[in-house]
Automatic annotation (TrEMBL):
Source domain of life: Bacteria
Lineage, top ranks: Bacteria, Pseudomonadati, Pseudomonadota, Alphaproteobacteria, Hyphomicrobiales
InterPro entries according to UniProt: AAA+_ATPase (IPR003593), ABC_Ni/Peptide_Import (IPR050388), ABC_transporter-like_ATP-bd (IPR003439), ABC_transporter-like_CS (IPR017871), Oligopep_ABC_C (IPR013563), P-loop_NTPase (IPR027417)
Family: Belongs to the ABC transporter superfamily.
Membrane topology per record: Peripheral membrane protein
SUPFAM superfamilies (alphabetical): P-loop containing nucleoside triphosphate hydrolases
Chief site of localization: membrane
Domain called ABC transporter: residue spans: 16-271
Protein name: Peptide/nickel transport system ATP-binding protein
Amino acid sequence: MTTAVSASPAASLFVLQVENLKTQFDTSAGVVRAVDGISFSLKRGEVMGLVGESGSGKSITGYSIMRAIDKPGRITEGHIKFCGRDNKIVDLVSLPERQMRDLRGNRVAMILQDPMMSLNPSLRIGTQLTETYLAHKKVSKQEARERAINVMQRVGIPDAERRLSAYPHEFSGGMRQRIAIAIALINEPDVIIADEPTTALDVTTQAQILFEVQKLSREFGTAWIWITHDLTIVAALAQNVAVMYAGKIVEYGSVASILDRPLHPYTKGLIASIPGHNSTLANKRLYQIPGNAPSLLSLPRGCPFRPRCAYADSTCLETPADTKLSENRFYRCWHPVETGAAL
């Protein structure tokens, strides 16, 4: 049964609050704990970066929030509290599917990394945009068409009115990605989950999209979860960042605090891997985190980063708990590193 209550002044501070979320996949080889007890809160107008290597659980976090996990995957524990513009709080985990469909693509939207996963190759672009709008808004087809043209222009598609009649295969990969972004933007949702949406775009177009993200956040209070492995984008775009490894958030804080003083060795390794991050990298080989991310079917004992960590010792055979430094800063490590310490 769905619980929807008027938001208290404290509750209205967030648009999305994830509490101890766990998503697992029951496979013939064993249980894959893709998201293993993560928690974070997202305020209106906030952009939060979600970073980590491939396989860390970033995308599954996004799909879990959208309630788009297919079998054998399932959310096994936790809450995803959403507070929309009507100041009603609902738990997306227990929300009936019919009500979830009303929110999905309307108040909570997602941009996929591969645009061909979200675009129907047999439908014209204009049809896909206007139907997304008409599904949630009681407007005329002409108004929906005008809205589609407007949002296409906002993501940098030239001659938008003419290109409404085009099919996805008539666009380049980068242009298809812009259309996927336009579909997510068209209803001006409260929350947009962006799964590496600018990967296929050139630098100029990427800058245009990032500008639109910041503009939406300022003008409409749209909150973003920006999933990426590119910390340079996070530095330019986000206010806060969560670092994921093996299904857990291992460090969280403001972008400035994370980039200036990373405490988890994994975070420090990610930053050190950025070309030209600081002058100490001059005339040296680019740093590479040793080893590979562990299989989620057979995680090492204790801290999952232990086999790759230069600071690991016998203490790390026990699972570390979160160490909270402030309301907006925590890490999960037995041996937090000093900023100047060598890797």
